[in-house]
Structures
1.
Amino acid sequence: MVEKFHKILFSPVGSNDPLGKNNSSDGSLVQVIKKTRPDEVYLYFSKDFAEVEADSHLIELYLGDVALAEHLNFSITKLYQTENLTAGPHIFDTYYREFTNKLTTIIDHAEQKYDSNTPLEIILNVSSGTPAMKSALFIITSTMNVGQFNNCKFSSYQVSSPASNWKPAKKEYTKELYLNNPDSADHVGSRAQQVADFNFEKFLTRRKAIEFVRSYNYDAAQSLLKEDSVDKITWALLSYGKARRQMQKDTFLKEPQAQLLQKTFGNKFLTPDYTTISKHKHNYKITDELYEYLLNIQALAHNNQAADFFRALTPALAMLFEDALRNSFSGLNNDSIYQHTKGAFGTIELKDLPEVRSYVYDYLGLNTNRGILLNTIGLLGTYRGCHDKNVPINSRFNSETIKEIYNTMAYFRVIEDAIRNQLAHNIISSQQFDSKVLKTVSARYPKLDGSLWSAGQLLIDLQDLNKLMANLKRLSQLIYPGSQHALTYLDYQELNHQIAEYIDGTKKH
């Protein structure tokens, strides 16, 4: 059994009501009445239209003729603009409040008049009135059209322009004029169409969630959306992004959600082919662990989180510097590492080799335990020592590459050294760095040719996290020639784009 609604139409009265200003086809108000066949009609008059209607009752009389011709039976209630209401033709928020108050009164009155077994349908004409009035009604129907509002269903109608430009010889608002109107011909369909359901609140929520995703804040996006409001693929993509930001990718890959992504996307996101998991003598492909860590640093740069960005640099630089040493030079066994590092730590006698070697390993973290934080000072000195003593270069590198790697390592060592004390004092803005400090630190880590870094240029770079990230990305590309392509696109953009499509509904599930 089809549920019968008591229909209440709310409509502003515009300049093309009840007939078009430039022709005599039906105005939007008449078209919506014919389409929806309401039981009650509430007409909202602005101040100017109210004065005309008070003198002529033109709208009311003409709608009476329409009712007779179409065998309709509806009551008409006239509503007027609130006294002293300040509203321009394009300022919708004023009318939003005005119409919300009017509709609340209408609904309260109807609910008192009819019992709970009589469902109400509130019909909004969004094609009549000023642009501000139309916008206000669209927002109202969008925010309320999420099911039942108390005992009410909301629907909105818009009207397309007439195809004909019919103009009668004499334009008098009579039943005869209505019957001769081209819109009244039997073969002419209605120009009024119901607006497809559009949940404005849901739209805004999804827009905000996409903003969170583009800022790499997948946790916030999930909190906003809730699991039961999106499909399983969308939720799994968000969970995957969240796990990666928390450096818990391996844990996620064991979960059922990973199987769903595997089935949907294959290895597109889960198992990139540009990394290697095992640690070899030469690591020309970046490890998955370090790649994910660099992704997180990239996110911090994108969000301009200066303090977190600089704090995150040290572990990344340590791992990069170690692999730079391993990958650039050949024949670095235990003894040769000692020989090339002994000058970096002061005077060390050869007879102390076992003890010193242990010291070097512990100091640099050059052992099988990846959990030890490496020391970038020692690694930088070791790299310089290998270059100065002409240690053979691996085949995938050349002297220019070695020079650029060292200089970029020294560049970041200056930055790391210069920012440590400032971060310890809770300096969180890169604009607060001192050029004098940078100049002093720069002298400790000169370029390979002995020249110093420009403190002014360093200060400029420190104020641009994306510039620093670009330099870090370049260093990574030099160290890992087997991952250059992947490191060129070192970001979450492909994943974020996929998530945004699913949230937005543009991606078919």
2.
Amino acid sequence: MIELMSGMKEHLEIELNYRKNELSSCKSDIRGKAEEMNKQLERKREIEDTIENLNNSIEELEEYRQYKLSKSSETVK
């Protein structure tokens, strides 16, 4: 009986170690994916900032163009 329980204990310890290794591997995979997602999110924010800056520049150029047009029409009068 003791031998049977000892064998079961050994089997359960092996199974536990296997599960711990699986869990560790999963944690590592999740960390890797989270880091990749953070990089992608950072890149997305950089792109959004660039788009916003470009839109602001376009607006400023349009305002300047309108100003120049109004000045040139005043000069023609």
